[in-house]
Amino acid sequence: MGFCFQSNDKEDGLISLKNIKKTYPNGFCAIKNLDLEVVAGDIMGIIGYSGAGKSTLIRIINRLEEPSEGEIVIDGVDLLSQKPKELQKIRQKMGMIFQHFNLLSSRDVFGNIAFALEIAGWKRENIALRVGELLDLVGLKDKASFYPSQLSGGQKQRVAIARALANHPKILLCDEATSALDTKTTKSILELLKDIQKKFSLTIVLITHQIEVVKEICNQMCVMSGGEIIERGLVHELFANPKHAVTKELISYLPPADDAHIFSHLKDQKNVYKIIFTGENANEPLISDVIKRFGIDANILSGNIEDLATESIGHLIIQFGGEENAILASLEYLNQKGLTIQSFDTATDLERTS
Fold first, then answer.
1. Sign of the torsion formed by the C-alpha atoms of 4, 232, 332 and 258
2. Which of 119-123, 145-149, 213-217 tops mean pLDDT?
3. Residue 208 pairs with which residues in a beta bridge?
């Protein structure tokens, strides 16, 4: 995949939030009794619709937002017990990237990156060396004297990434870091983040409303709704077998128009199923197996492969023909083999039993 996720047993709970609640003075509860664990070396994607509480949550991690209740532990340190000077030092090990870049318009690229080092008390000669390293890392060595107004959106975000990495952080927090970028630029920024994660073994927490971002870069994901985490787990597992209605809405393998196109060509729309393959199942001839084993027909209507950060997921839309009992037995057989089966007849899932 071009990069790897690493876990350090000694830092098995690098980020730990427990019973977090955030209620604003007007009475609005943005976060409700939320627990979150992020293991060192993970890229955790937190996804949800607008108003789900994602931005509030990520800002609570480094105490840019203060929780009303709960516990924040970063690398074994209780953040809520830290005094301002201690908290500032801890924050230097948590870089943050924002949706709208937050660059200083009065400073050039060099000055924007240097600003984080000046606050941390670096010596001038060391600042120059470090800024040069960071500009090289993000591919902007020729833009050091440019001002933000002279940069594209992607270049601005690269400056913001360099600034976030200035103090050698262990954690990188990304608040809708690609939402203001076009598709091509988003891909280049995600590639940069993957390279950085691999090179420095960073832990990344990334909030987004873009499911393609989670698919491209994350190994773990949480789905938020109404200030709560409603579903969590490995990305490929949630993509293959989402449980909650919101997750199913967010994870759409085929747009509705594609399904409509498929069904418009069918005289009989009975016994049509989406079969989802993950891991070892993708390499087994299970469809041909059930055809022979149960004496049924299988008309493959559509299929494709989703390449995720951790592994690939394949899915087929198939119309089965034959004896009704034989079709049901074949579906149960596939179910027992660990495949996820979604029925177009009932719009419900046949839950995996294995």
1. negative
2. 145-149
3. 47
Q: Residue 233 corresponds to which tokens in the numbers above?
A: 């787990």
CA-to-CA separations, 3 to 162, 185, 187, 236, in angstroms, rounded: 19, 19, 15, 16
The span from the CA of 192 to the CA of 264, in Å, is 42
Parallel/antiparallel/unpaired status of strands 312-321 and 272-278: antiparallel
Beta bridge partners of 312: 307
Q: What is the DSSP letter of 322?
A: S
Question: Helices 153-164 and 109-119 meet at what angle, rounded to 10?
Answer: 20
Report the distance separating Cα 161 and Cα 159, nearest Å: 5
Q: Using one digit for the tens of pLDDT, what is the confidence trace for 300-311?
A: 777 777 777 777
Strand partners, 234: 220
pTM: 0.73
Residue pLDDT, tens place only, 234-278: 998 888 888 899 998 888 643 443 455 555 566 677 888 888 887
Residue that is written with structure tokens 């340190």 in the block: 77
Alpha carbon distance 264, 189 (integer Å): 39
Strand-by-strand arrangement of the 228-234 sheet: 94-97, 171-175, 203-208, 43-47, 220-225, 228-234
- Tens digit of each residue's pLDDT (9 = 90 or more) over 169-211: 999 999 988 888 888 898 999 999 999 999 999 999 999 988 8
CA–CA separation, 11 and 15 (whole Å): 9
Give buried/exposed letters for 170-192 (b at 16+ CB in 10 A, else e): bbbbbbbbbebbeeebbbebbeb
